[in-house]
Amino acid sequence: MKFIIGLGNPGRDYAGTRHNIGFEVIDRIAADVGVEINRAKHRAHFGEGFLGTRKIVLVKPQTYMNLSGECVRDILHFYKRTPSDMIVVYDDCDLALGQIRIRERGSAGSHNGMKNIVYQLETDEFVRVRVGIGEKPPRMELANYVLSKFAKHELEEAAAGAEKAADAAIAVLKEGATAAMNKFNVKAGG
């Protein structure tokens, strides 16, 4: 059993914001593999299904970004799984809009949702797919930027990034993290 966890903030006010691109990726994976996000438990909305013969659980934490780790810890504990059984998908303002990066482990950087996951699980040994939301404009607070909606001219590129991230997460499950990194972690201009 594997978990794909997309980070975001619950509620209509946050829908379509940069910080919620993880939720968008989960919705795309759900549509691609035919999983319904139809359960609410463990402070999450989630759905179970299969990718080939492997059982998967798609998760959208409802704890707000800064407490994402509480939900992740609870759901892994309930299913008696470890962090090595999950992929976390989240926004990254250090990547160009639409660009993605897969990593097998590493620090949380400045991302508060990831910081809380690492803190709650006491490890950074899990796969993550970072989705570029573009660099924060000068003189704009980071919190305001990540909670802003994509501009009209950014929507197509943001959607392409979410689709690429969905494909990357599925590739991690089907082919392994190393093969997925070789396929999706393309250098800028490459």
Could you characterize the architecture of this molecule?
A hairpin with a 2-residue loop joins strand 2 and strand 3. It contains six helices and seven strands; from the N terminus they run E-H-E-E-E-H-E-E-H-E-H-H-H. The model has no long low-confidence stretch (mean pLDDT 95). The chain is globular, with a radius of gyration of 15 Å. Strands 2-3-4-1-5-7-6 form a seven-stranded mixed sheet, sandwiched between helices. With 190 residues, the protein is of the alpha/beta class. Helices cover 36% and strands 22% of the residues.
Structural class computed from helices and strand pairing: alpha/beta
Q: State the low-pLDDT regions, or none.
A: none
Shape: globular
User: Could you estimate the helical fraction of the residues in percent?
Assistant: 25-40%
Mean pLDDT: 95
Strand order of the largest sheet: 2-3-4-1-5-7-6
Spell the H/E element sequence: EHEEEHEEHEHHH
Report the β-strand fraction as a percent range: 15-25%
The biggest beta sheet is recorded as: 7 strands, mixed
Give the CA-CA distance, first to last residue. 34 Å
Query: Helix segment count?
Result: 6
Number of strands: 7
Rounded Rg: 15 Å
Quickly describe the structure.
The protein is of the alpha/beta class. 36% of the residues lie in helices and 22% in strands. The protein has six helices and seven strands, in the order βαβββαββαβααα.
